[in-house]
Amino acid sequence: MPVESKGEQHIGLDSKGEQRIGLLNGFAAYGMWGLVPLFWPLLEPAGAAEILAHRMVWSLGIVVIALVVMRRWAWAGPLLRQPRRLGLITVAAATITVNWGVYIWAVNAGHVVEASLGYFINPLVTIAMGVLLLKERLRPAQWAAVGIGFAAVLVLTIGYGQPPWISLCLAFSFATYGLVKKKVNLGGLESLAAETAIQFLPALGYLLWLSSRGDATFGGEGAGHAALLAATGVVTAVPLVCFGAAAIRVPLSTLGLLQYLAPVLQFLLGILYFHEAMPAERWAGFALVWAALSLLTWDALRTARKSRTVLREAATAATAAAEAAREAAAANPTTTSGTTTSTNT
Fold it and tell me: Which candidate in 39, 238, 266, 339 could, as Cys together with 116 as Cys, close a disulfide (CB 3.0–4.6 Å)?
């Protein structure tokens, strides 16, 4: 029976501890994103546009403080010298602005369930965009999942009497945002800092314009309301920091499963807390979406398992080949002797 050394035991414990910390941060991040519909109604009577602007302004302040504390500024200089990456970050800032704005409006307008649907179908939209824009090839299970997702949208269109525009807008804007961020290749906190820096001046200008018209609620609804508006920066930044801590500690497949926690919580809040209607045709549409996601998840786990098996077999074969080479070398030693030449003078 193999005996682990103290050093090996310590490494194993450290690894398990890191994974536990990663899982806790992952649950915290997606849990906060799932429960955020409880927060936006607290900001009324502020409208969605004013809430959005405050979110942009205060998020930059929180992120800058975090970067100062963590001393992570090295990325800023090179980024400013790369116009293409700056252009991509501008596109990312625009798409996440649309996503944030639509989501805040949807929650405060009583469409929490439809908003949750947007994040349920987001993985399917991401796959479809990969095929259309990046010419990626899909496995049969992925094609089937996309087809079921399309059928779900048709069923929900019949149920709602129109296409689920809120869901589609959220899904496509967030999928585009993810695609652009992948090309920018910048860390989560750094990316948010760059995006909110671009959003800051337009958002601040809008808030000043509202204030000049006397339509701003900040400062006019009491200190508590002003504090809640300022807290939008914390609500934006803290889950992202937790997500970043999770992303470096747990496998991508685990994060892929955790991502469903947010829309599940949003869906449950929409039904159980906000008491939104769910007629039979909507249940049918959601059931199709969940079937597509189940197929997608099963395919991803199966593919990951196959990849791990192939890598493990390759490592085993390489180890066996190296051991065989050592045994052959031991069985047939090669002796090299120098030649001594004696010269008599």
Answer: 266
| Alpha helix stretches (DSSP H) within the chain | 6-35, 48-70, 76-80, 83-108, 112-134, 140-160, 165-184, 188-213, 223-230, 232-247, 252-258, 261-268, 280-331
User: Rounded CA gap, 241 and 26, in Å?
Assistant: 10
pLDDT-derived band at 122, boundaries 50, 70, 90 = confident
Tokens of 141: 């299970």
Given this model, what pLDDT does residue 187 score? Answer: 73
Q: Tell me the per-residue pLDDT of 156-177, one tens digit each, with 9 for 90 and over.
A: 888 888 899 999 999 999 889 8
Asked, as a colleague might, if the bond just before 45 is cis with ω within 30 of 0, I would say yes
Q: What are phi and psi of 57, to 5 degrees?
A: -65, -50
Neighbours of 230 (CB within 10 A): 15
φ/ψ of residue 249, rounded to 5:
-120, -20
Distance CA 9, CA 286 (A): 46
- Residue 222, token pair as written in the block: 């009491």
DSSP 270: I
The pTM score is 0.81
pLDDT digits (tens, 9 = 90+) for 189-239: 788 889 989 999 999 999 999 999 888 899 888 899 999 999 999 998 888
Give the model's pLDDT for residue 253. Answer: 65
What's the sign of the alpha-carbon dihedral 103, 107, 111, 115? positive
Inform me whether the pLDDT recorded for 66 exceeds 80. Answer: yes
